[in-house]
Amino acid sequence: MTNLTETIPTTETTIPAITAVIIESVVETYAAICENTPQVAAAGQEMTKNNLCIGIISLVGRAPILLSLAFPEDTAVNVSEKFLGNRVAFDSLDMSDLVGELCNVIAGDTKARLEGVGVAAELSLPSVVRGDSLELLFGDQVDSAEETMTSDEGLFKIRIAIANELGEFGP
To answer: Which of 14, 48, 102, 128 lies 20 to 30 Å from 54, alpha-carbon distance?
Structure first.
């Protein structure tokens, strides 16, 4: 697994370039919603693995991509206040809806950015899971990257998986 900050933004349709486009989309969309720009967390600044709410969405095309955003309870509640204007209880269905919608908004922006570099994709519906010590497992057919981010709302984790056999890009 790679750290997301090891990618170099380009307009090429390589896995590192696609990852960079996705990260740019996550950071800029989050900043627009929460009015602060998330940064890569400092070394040793780890997010809890307990009481997480994880949104998962796929961009399906010739380059299958999975994007997940994991929020611990405090971060999720703080994000809800920025996104909705009021605090949502972590264990409510409203929180699941909020995390799913946040993934959907980010994935929509990502889709538009990827189309700008020649990578066509359609969005899946978002899925949301909540629990302790949750981990997305990927086989050897994908390249994956993750990064813990910090923001005024707290820590959260971005995880990306891209099929390592990209094939042809385009519509």
So the answer is: 14
Which pTM value belongs to this model? 0.86
Long-range CB contacts for residues 35-41, cutoff 8 Å, separation at least 24: 35/82, 36/151, 36/152, 36/153, 37/151, 38/149, 38/150, 38/151, 38/156, 39/149, 39/150, 39/151, 40/4, 40/5, 40/147, 40/148, 40/149, 40/150, 41/147, 41/148, 41/149, 41/150, 41/155
Under 8 Å between Cβ of 99 and 71: yes
Q: What's 11's DSSP letter?
A: S
Taken in order of first residue, the domains within the chain and their CATH numbers are 2-39+51-132+142-163 (3.40.1550.10)
Residue of 165 and 5 predicted with greater confidence? 165
